[in-house]
Give the backbone structure.
Amino acid sequence: MQEKLHHETSDVDIGGIFRFGAGLLVVAVIVHLLIFGLFRYFESRENARVPAEYPLARSQGDRLPPEPRLQTDPRQELSDLRAKEDQWLGSYGWVDRNAGVVRIPIDAAMKLTLQRGLPARTEETR
């Protein structure tokens, strides 16, 4: 007759391994809850704290530092500058009304240059 084979019970305690794993899981959950509570406590203290006045911060009446100053939003400022330049370069307007100098859009200036041509050099100016 053959005997039924089982695992070795004298060397390995399966119940002990499961109890250790369960205990480890319980300890991990407790530690996570304690850390979560600690962070909530720190967050509430930080939100309740009134920030101290930075001694180098300038007040409203102080004068501004010399140029060039740092830009607060460089992308928006560049976009605004380009829009302003595009509007200026693409419209008609007076440069000097007394001298009769006007500005015209770039496309119109290129068409006029093609129609009128560029002045040719003479032998004396070469």
